[in-house]
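>> Question from a student workshop board

For tomorrow's exercise we were told to take the sequence and the ligand below, predict the bound structure, and bring the output to class. My setup keeps failing. Could a helper post the expected result so I can at least see what it should look like? The ligand is iron/sulfur cluster.
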Amino acid sequence: MKQSVSSMAVQHGLERSDNGRLQTLWLEFDQPCNLACSYCFANGGSKLGDEACLTRNDYVSILNQAQQLGVDSIGIPGCGEPLLPCNQEFTIWFLHECAARNIYVTLFSTGEFITLELAAKLYELPVELMIKGNSLDPEKQDRFVSDPSRSRNIRGYGKARNRAIEILMAVGFTDESRSIAEFGRKSRMALVTSVMTGKDGGPSNYDEVGDILRYCRNRNIIFDCDTVLERGRGATCGMSLQDELQKTKMVELQTIDREEYCNSWPITRSYAGTTCDRFKHHLYIQKFGSIHPCIGSINVVLGYVQTTMLQDAFDNPLMQIIRARCYGGVCGTTCANFSDGICNSCLGRSTVNLNNAFLEKEGYVDTAGCWNFRKNSK
Ligand code: SF4
Ligand code: SF4
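>> Workshop helper replied:
Here is what the output should look like for this input. Compare the format with yours to find the bug.
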């Protein structure tokens, strides 16, 4: 299996060189979730609609095309909990289908249902586990996955998640030498969070996220940290930080990582520690089959897997605008971070009017910039 070992552990589907080809996919599953995170991009835990979702045959067709095109990385973004007992059969089936095609999977999970037996089974498969990690404190973690406005008060999740972290480490997911030898990866487990502060006394990890970074670095756990994606409940949860607070926190994380762990990275709009480069190698498929540039650009529809081949979606003229980095507005025309290649803007966080009609008419991605703007000298 072709892999790269980054000096600092990041998700498998990031830090790709541009070979002009589709390299990574994210796929949604049609699965329920037992939690009620108020920031969930997928409205997880809510009643599903009547729209027909992808079938097992559709997933096989996607995987066959992916293999043929050389895709080596698939992310399952936590649209539902893939390891909920009623979802496990499908998820394990899918992981085996990926393994048979030499495709590595980035599986987002709450971790709640991970037992020693399940962890041992997962360890043998080419998968990295992206475990929810909003807070290390079990009670506070429970508040992050509850939604009192919908009378959903979750108890006991944080403890179960902490137990899962211990199990995964014991099984070897964070064992650097084994991960490198067996899978070509520095680490195979992440803690995933956005930096968030709830309104009106809601949960906040603003003061804790530096310690979550340390917890990860001290244990060879991937630190997968960003800001709230304002999609689904994330658009209305009110947990996004004001610009100045976001900037202050990212500078703090950058300083901790540099001074305590010798990791140097520039601040960008997407992840702490790296910039998202999916604009050039990626497609996102919703559980209904619609194909999009990424999780944050759902109003750009490149086709439907039931009728559109992945290569055709990737070569769609609208996707070619994105792949060619034809960006206007603040990021595209005036930000030095963009022109220097340090930040690739963010389709889900820094764009304006990102939809088919605008791209067809104007031929570029319009952008609004962000708190990390650095004026271009030209
Ligand atoms: S461009 Fe932004 S929203 Fe899209 S995948 Fe990258 S970080 Fe996520
Ligand atoms: S203004 Fe745009 S390109 Fe510049 S740092 Fe912010 S998101 Fe990145």
